[in-house]
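Dear colleagues,

As part of the handover before I leave the project, I'm documenting each prediction I ran so the next person doesn't have to rerun anything. This entry is a single chain, and its sequence is reproduced below.
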Amino acid sequence: MSQPQKRTKVTEPAESMENDDSEASTSQSSATRTDLTAFTQEAFRNMVAATRSCNNFPQGTARSLYLSYPGYARMLEEQSQRVLGLINKVLKVEKISGDIRRRQGDEQLEMVQECNDILFERITTNLDIKRGLRHRNNHVVVETQVDVQSATTPTATLVTTTNETTTPRAGTWNRTTSSVGTPSRGTVSARLFTAKNIMRPQMQFKVPVDNSAQNPFKPRLTEKPNSLKPLALLPEYDDNGEVVSFLHPYEFELMKFEPTKEQLQKQKPLMPLPPAQTELMLVDSVEKLRQALDELRQASQIAIDVEHHSYRTFMGITCLVQMSTRTKDYIFDTLILREDMHILNLVLTDPKVLKILHGGDLDIEWLQRDLSLYIVNMFDTHRAAKALNMARLSLAFLLKHYLDLDVDKSLQLADWRMRPLPQQLIDYARQDTHYLIYVFERMTNDLLQADQGQPQALRMVYQLSTEVCKKRYTKPHIGPESHLDLVRKTKRSFDNRQLYALQGIFAWRDTTARQEDESYGYVLPNHMMLQIAESLPREMQGILACCNPIPPLVRQQLHTLHQIVLKAREQPLVKPILEDHSSRLGNAHLAPTTKDFNSKLNCPHDYSHQEEARDDLPTLLRRSATGKLLRPDQQKVNSPLMQLANPAFELFQKPMAPTQEEHLRWQHSRKESQILRMPYKRYLAILPLMQQQKIEQTAREHSELLKRRLCPTEPAPESIKVETTPKEQDDLYNLPLKEQLKRKHQSNAERDQPSMSKRSKNEETKPIIKEEAMPATEEVQDSDDEAVVEVPIEKNAPENGASTLSKRQQKRQQKNQRFKAKSRVQAQSSNHPVQVPSSNQGNTQHFDYKNVDFRQFRGGAQRARGTEVKTQMRGKNRPNQRNNKQFNKLFTFSNVKKEGKK
């Protein structure tokens, strides 16, 4: 019994499907009715019936039970595929990409919702148009007057609209003019030509726009026609190894480019036909693009211009490209042909075809960014106007100068995204390139004429134009201090809180503009951003009050802006330092001074070297009757000061009433203070003082030198007479060293011979000064220690008539001399202070060697001269050297050479 019940339930959905088909046929017949109200009610009934039929299908566990039967599952699958096929056809009609039959459940639902949004928007628009609430292509003209001096008289504009006289001009409500409709004399009116509800063209681009600052702009060129090198997109890296840009694809071709001979020769200008008699081709499809390419390849000269839009996009959009030959004009719709315009590189990169632009700096970058177009062999009329030193460099001035043609430039701020293009915008875009070839020919001849037929100036213009072609597009980038540039331009002084808020709002605006693909001016204009950062409103309504009109994205993200402002208000307030004050402080601490304040010639009050020096300026100080300096605001004390106690000591004691001499002295000092003495006069006055200081300094240095001397000098005794024979002394020193020593020993032997055997020990040890002797240092080497022994050498010994001695007498004389040398060494090496020989035995001088300045002996000892005798001290004198080692170290120097034992 259960099976028949299930079969009856299976037949019910089938009957409901038949009812749905019948109801769909009735709805199609009712769609032809003219009554809109009846049609809407019938559509609602059908929707309710379809919803009821869908709800009659089994659900939950019942659905799983029914799907276990193959017949029900097969029928349900067939009907589902049929419905999905119908929905897919509707999606294709609405140009929604993708096949709904191959998607999952969530993706299918999203595609259906997108299609419904488009359908409902179209229905709403059609209903508004039917009721008269909306008009198609409602172009609104808003005219604003700018203070730009015009070189020509104002002429009638080509653009005329029905609501021009009734629409007030933006920004002219507070201008006092004769009438709102007529601009003042000498100004140009710029008009904003736009339309309502323009669909954003970047939403239909096949390749999405990348506004991120992390990814640098990369050329999208896939092929390279007219190349001398194969295509290679080479990256450039920074110090951190990150890619910052890519090389120009046609950089090598531009480096090798040279203008042809025909371009450097005199041209034959041909006046073009008026635009009304010239053919115009609107290129908005790939077939027309290929046809235009074939025609452009036949031309030798092409004039190019670009129309750009940058308000409702972050990086900008190239909306139109105009090209003109001598016989035809072309307007390319780059919003539609954005991905196919790169085929024009066959013409634009051909070095044999000349491309003419006016001010192509930005045009070159826009063509690279949006259309992957590059230009080789370009002539820039803007650079040519600079080379000719023209009064103005605009295209309107060139057309007036060469063709006496007044063009309308009031539509520079038009919205070029409007489609279809109004006829006014088509005529405006066409006039920029229609006469440009004729202007090029006239300017070429003027350049040759200015250079007396030589092509140097013309070649320079081509080189400058080639440098413009080498430009590469780079994305906008902001740094941590980019907001400070805006503050410097506005010349406002912000504290640390305001700067913190400005930096946060600046970063928010940049992030929002990149995400929403909107310009900075649309997200938040500069003047509104500065007003918010300067006022720092506490409430959200204060932020909105700083914006008039309120930008849409500011209203949407008001909470984020409010949090930035509140965080800035929480920052501790730091007193700002003005730039001029900080610069003065920095110069005072860091900048080195070139003045020598210790110099006597420096005078801090000398302003004679300055150009603006004045000596008649008033001062705050004045003198009283007694000559005392008084301030003008100092109040006179009527009551005299009472002395509490008598002073114990007075430094400057003078009578209360000044004398006549003091009056004269004060008068003389005031007169001297008012006289400006020149630097040379001051120099002459200071010379005696400088000379006196120099003499005193020399005397002090001499006294210090005497105190630091090792052995004080003493005048020679009068009783000592030095007998010298200059001639014999010269002859003695001219002999060899051995002969000199031999003669000296002979003279000493002859002098000491008579009393050699009869002298006592006291007489031998008694010092006998015959003449001035020079001590010679000799170094004696020993296995245990080293020492230096001073041996006096007599110079210029008196030569007595020496008689011939026998060998025995000579031998005895030599023995006595050795004994005398030994006794002399013992006397010098004693621990007692050194006694300087003098004529008076009672007058002895003791010298303390502890106060010796040994810095004078840093040069070391001198080598022994040729006349010095270096005696070898044998073993008998070694104990004496060891006992007097402390004294010998005073005269031991590092430069004395050591000699070995003999």
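DSSP finds 30 helices and 14 strands in the chain. The mean pLDDT is 74.

All the best with the project,
I.
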